[in-house]
C-alpha cells in the first residue's frame, strides 16, 4: 500500500461491487463504511464488508471517531483479526494527531493505518500525525478540507489547496513515510482532467491518488509514470555523469549537481509501476 498509485473506493453497502473493484486495475481497494454509506445501512454494510473473502487483501475506511459507529467498527476489526480475516489497512477519516494516536492504540497489532487528513485541524497536526505509531501513509481528503476552510478549489491546479498539499508532502518526508496520496477527482467521466490533476499531484510530491470509479484508474496510472521526455532527460543525465570522469557535469546548458542526478535515478526507477 505504500507504493499504491491508485486507491479505489467501493461502497460498503454495495457488496455486489466488491469483486468488480478487486478485479479492476486499482493498486488498492478500500471498502468504504463512511461517506458512501447512509446511517440506516451502516450495520449491514459492516457485516457485508467483514463477510467478504477479499477483505484481507483490501483496506477498510471506518467511521470517524465520535460517531455512533466508530466503536463497533473497531470491535469488528478486532474480531476479524482473531480469525485472520482483517483488512490489510485501515483508513481513518477526519484524522488529527489525537484521533490517530487513539485509533492506532485500539487497532489489532500490525494493522497499517492511513490517516485521512481532511480538516484544518488535521493539516495543523500533520507532522504529529505522521509520527504516530502504526501510520504508514498520509491521505488527503481534499473535498472535505476545502469545505472545512470554506475554499473553492478550481481544477486542475486547485492552487487554493496548495498549502495543505505541500504540508502533507513535507510531513510525510520528514517522518520517513511513503509519499502521500492525493484526493479524488469528482468528475467521473473526464479522464483527461483526472490525469491532469494526478500529474500535478505527482509534480507536488504525492505518490498516489484516490479514485471514485474504475474509469479514473488509467489516467491516474499514466500520470504517475514518467513522460518520454523525462525518461530521455534522465538517461542523458546519467550518461553525462558516467562519462565525466568525476568532473563537472553540464547538460543542456545547466550544471548537473548531485540532487539533479538523484532526480534522474528516481525518474528511471518510477518507470516500473509497483507490483
Care to give the gist of this entry?
With 275 residues, this protein is an alpha/beta fold. It contains 12 helices and 10 strands.
Task: Please give a structural write-up.
- The protein has helices at residues 18-22, 42-51, 70-82, 97-106, 120-124, 126-130, 142-148, 162-175, 191-204, 217-223, 228-242, 258-270; strands at 6-11, 28-32, 59-61, 89-92, 112-117, 139-140, 181-182, 208-211, 250-251, 254-255.
- With 275 residues, it is α/β, with parallel strands linked by helices.
- It folds into two domains: 6-223, Phosphoenolpyruvate-binding domains (TIM Barrel); 228-270, no CATH class.
- α3 (70-82) links the parallel β3 (59-61) and β4 (89-92).
- The relative contact order is 0.11.
Number of helices: 12
Summarize the helix and strand pattern as letters: EHEHEHEHEHHEHHEHEHHEEH
What is Rg?
20 Å
Please tally the β strands and state the result.
Answer: 10
Strand-residue fraction? 5-15%
> How many domains would you count in the coordinates?
2
Can you tell me the overall shape? Answer: elongated
Going by helix content, strand content and strand pairing, the class is alpha/beta
Intertermini distance: 11 Å
Domain HpcH/HpaI aldolase/citrate lyase: 5-214
Protein name: CoA ester lyase
InterPro entries: Aldolase/citrate-lyase_domain (IPR005000), Citrate_lyase_beta/mcl1/mcl2 (IPR011206), Pyrv/PenolPyrv_kinase-like_dom (IPR015813), Pyrv_kinase-like_dom_sf (IPR040442)
Pfam family, one: HpcH_HpaI
Amino acid at each position: 500500500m505504500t507504493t499504491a498509485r491508485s486507491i479505489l473506493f467501493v461502497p460498503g453497502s454495495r457488496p455486489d461491487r466488491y469483486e468488480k473493484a478487486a478485479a479492476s486495475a486499482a493498486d488498492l481497494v478500500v471498502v468504504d463504511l463512511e461517506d458512501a454509506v447512509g446511517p440506516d445501512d451502516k450495520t449491514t454494510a459492516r457485516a457485508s464488508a467483514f463477510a467478504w473473502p477479499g477483505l484481507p487483501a483490501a483496506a477498510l475506511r471506518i467511521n470517524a471517531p465520535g460517531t455512533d459507529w466508530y466503536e463497533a467498527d473497531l470491535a469488528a476489526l478486532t474480531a476479524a483479526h482473531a480469525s485472520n480475516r482483517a483488512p490489510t489497512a485501515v483508513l481513518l477519516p477526519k484524522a488529527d494527531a489525537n484521533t490517530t494516536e487513539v485509533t492506532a492504540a485500539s487497532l489489532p497489532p500490525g494493522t497499517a493505518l492511513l490517516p485521512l487528513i481532511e480538516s484544518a485541524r488535521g493539516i495543523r497536526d500533520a507532522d504529529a500525525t505522521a509520527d504516530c505509531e502504526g501510520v504508514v501513509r498520509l491521505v488527503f481528503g481534499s473535498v472535505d478540507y476545502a469545505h472545512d476552510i470554506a475554499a473553492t478549489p478550481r481544477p486542475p491546479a486547485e492552487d487554493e489547496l496548495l498549502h495543505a498539499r505541500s504540508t502533507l508532502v513535507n510531513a510525510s518526508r520528514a517522518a520517513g513515510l511513503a509519499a502521500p496520496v492525493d484526493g479524488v477527482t469528482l468528475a467521473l467521466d473526464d479522464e483527461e482532467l483526472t490525469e491532469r490533476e494526478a500529474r500535478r499531484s505527482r509534480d507536488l510530491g504525492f505518490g498516489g491518488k484516490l479514485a471514485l470509479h474504475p474509469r479514473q484508474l488509467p489516467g491516474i496510472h499514466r500520470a504517475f509514470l514518467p513522460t518520454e521526455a523525462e525518461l530521455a532527460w534522465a538517461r542523458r543525465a546519467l550518461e553525462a555523469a558516467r562519462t565525466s570522469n568525476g568532473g563537472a557535469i553540464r547538460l543542456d546548458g545547466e550544471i548537473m549537481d548531485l540532487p539533479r542526478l538523484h532526480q534522474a535515478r528516481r525518474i528511471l526507477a518510477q518507470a516500473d509501476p509497483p507490483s
